[in-house]
Amino acid sequence: MKIAITRLAPGTHDVPLPSYATEGAAGMDVRAAVEHEVIVRPKATVLVPTGFAMAIPPGFEAQIRPRSGLAIKHQIGILNSPGTIDADYRGEVRIILTNFGDTDFLIKRGDRIAQMVIAPYVKAEWEERESLDSTDRGAGGFGHTGR
Description:
Layout: E1 4-7, E2 28-31, E3 38-40, E4 45-49, E5 52-55, E6 60-65, H1 68-74, E7 76-78, E8 83-85, E9 94-99, E10 105-107, E11 112-120
Antiparallel strand pairs: 1-5, 2-11, 3-10, 4-9, 6-8, 6-11, 7-9
């Protein structure tokens, strides 16, 4: 699948566009296009620019997910994970990073800060009814199986 992408500033050609690190990778690495180093303090959240915008085809979304290495090594994650970039959005992709740890985290230009997965979605249409069909689970919610 080909997706149109554009760099938003002439000075961002040094920051690689999203790319797959391995042949079997589902997610593309997304890199920071910060002008200066950014310190993310413990328990703080920052909005990190990527320097690009894209045109996702109708029927697809881009999911922004945390990188497992940043999560396990530095407790860095994405607060609204997974974030969704809709097919009709044409602005800069920016990443909401949160430092869930107890030490400062430094973001430098070109650092891999997230991963992006392109995925299809289905549009639902509600069909209102007086009642729903029954299942073995029924209304059993959080922890109802005892596991």
